[in-house]
Sequence to fold (320 residues):
Amino acid sequence: MSALAAVASPPELADSTALMQAALTAVGRGWRVFPLDPGTKKPSIKRWEQRATLDPVRIRRWWQRFPTSNVGIACGPSGLLVLDLDAAHGPVPAHWAALGVNHGRDVIALLAERARQPDPVATFTVATPRDGEHRYFLRPPGAVLRSTVGERGRGLGWRADTRGPGAAVTFVGSVQVIDGRAVPYTVLRDLPVAPLPEWLITALTPPPPPSRPTQVPVLPATGRRVTAYVNAAIAGERHNVATAEEGERHITLYAAAAALGELLANDWITRSAITYHLTDAARHHLGVADFDWKELSNTIHDGIEAGRQRPRVIPDRSRT
Fold:
C-alpha cells in the first residue's frame, strides 16, 4: 500500500498520527504545508502562505499540538496550479447546460476539445468530499498565472476554478464535515504531477499591459488658473485610484474618470491624458481578485462618457 493510500483511510479508522503523516507526505513531494481548522478549509494560522513550510520538525510540532488539523498546501510557494473542479450542486446555467455541461470537469473537457488537445486528466488528482476534484499541475516558472473563479476575469468557466499564488488546496487525508459526517479527501489518480498544458497557460495568461507612452500627454493650452486647477484634479484622482481598497476599486476608478471627464467637456484636458493618468494609477491593482485590463479600460471609458455630459465650473473667487 502506498503512503498516499494509507493516509486516505476513512476518518473513523485513522489514528492520531494520520494527519501528521499526510502533511509529511505532502512535504515529501516538495509542497509547502500549513494547518487548517479541523474538518474545514479555514487556515489555522495567520500569514499562512508565508509560513507554509517544508520543515518536518515544524510540521511535527504543529500536528502534535493540534492532531486533528486538516492539511493545507500553499499553491503559490509550492509551484502548483490546481484545477478545482466542482459538481453543480444546483441548477446549471442555461448556456452551459445547452453544451451538455453539469460539472467543472465537463468545462475542461469542452475547452480541451475546442483547443484540439486531450482532456488534461493524466496528473495527480484528489477527489474532494462534495464530488469535486483537484487536478495538480506544475506552474511554469515566470508565468503570470493567478487564481481564478468561474468565468470571471481570465477564468475558464462555470465550476472550473484555479488555485495558484494566494490560494490553497486541502490535501489527502483531511476531512470535511458534511451533514455531521466527516468525509475524507482521497486520491483519485496517483500519478506524477504533470506540467500545466500550453493551451491552459495561454487561456489563463492575462494580456500584456499596454506600453506606457514615452511622454505624458500634454494638456491643451489654458490659462494659468485653469492649468493649476486641472493639475490638482489629476493629482487628487490619481491618489484616490491608487489607494482604493479592493472592494471600492471599480466605483473609485469610475468616479475619478467621471470627474476628469467633466474637465474634458471644457477642453481643459485630453481624453488620452485622462486614460494615461488613471491607467498608471490603477496599474498595481491589475491581477488582484480578477481586476483585469478589460475592466480597467471599460470603467475609465464609461466614467469619461458620463463626466463629459457635465462640464465643470470653477467657482469665481471674486464672489463671497
Notes: Residues 3-204 form a domain with the DNA primase, PRIM domain fold (CATH 3.90.920).
